[in-house]
Amino acid sequence: MAIDVFEFSSGALAFVLAFVTAGLFTLAFKGIYQLITPYKEGQLLREGNVAAAIALGGAILGYVIPLASALSQTHSLIEFAVWALLAGVIQILAFWGVRRIALPDVSERIVRGEVASGVYLLSISVAVGILNAACMTS
């Protein structure tokens, strides 16, 4: 069985383009998420705040899950970009909902290093990400 070099090359190029695009969207989401949180994740992480690491990690996972779904469901980078933007908005709204409705003092709890609050944010983010991914259709 011989490998079709042209077919492999075009597939590899599509892979690199999709991977880089998804990576850039993930970095942009992380930056925006860190801007909207009232605490400084970078500083908290340097100080060893486990709750902040768990919460930020959960937000990133919750965002990347629907990105993976979008990559497998879409047929163009434009379509992927629209789903990626929507996934980011939904994750940010989920954080806003927790902060305003479910656990209004969650930000202070994260700053204090309360791991339970970090795990709660992680759980909400991942749950929202899974539902988001499941609802995506092309």
Shape: elongated
What is the terminal-to-terminal distance? 34 Å
Can you summarize the main beta sheet? none
Helix share, percent: over 70%
Secondary-structure-based class equals mainly alpha
Number of strands: 0
> Gyration radius, to the nearest Å?
17 Å
Flag low-confidence runs.
none
Q: Return the string of H and E elements.
A: HHHHHH
What does this structure look like?
With 138 residues, the chain is mainly α. It has one domain (21-135). Helix content is 83%, strand content 0%. The protein is built from six helices and no strands. The protein is elongated and about 60 Å long. The two termini are 34 Å apart. The model has no long low-confidence stretch (mean pLDDT 94).
What is the secondary structure topology, with strand pairs?
Elements: H1 5-36, H2 41-46, H3 50-73, H4 77-102, H5 106-111, H6 115-135
Helix pairs in contact: 1-3, 1-4, 3-4, 3-6, 4-6
What attributes characterize this protein structure?
138 residues, mainly alpha, elongated
Quick structural gist:
With 138 residues, the chain is mainly alpha-helical. Helices cover 83% and strands 0% of the residues.
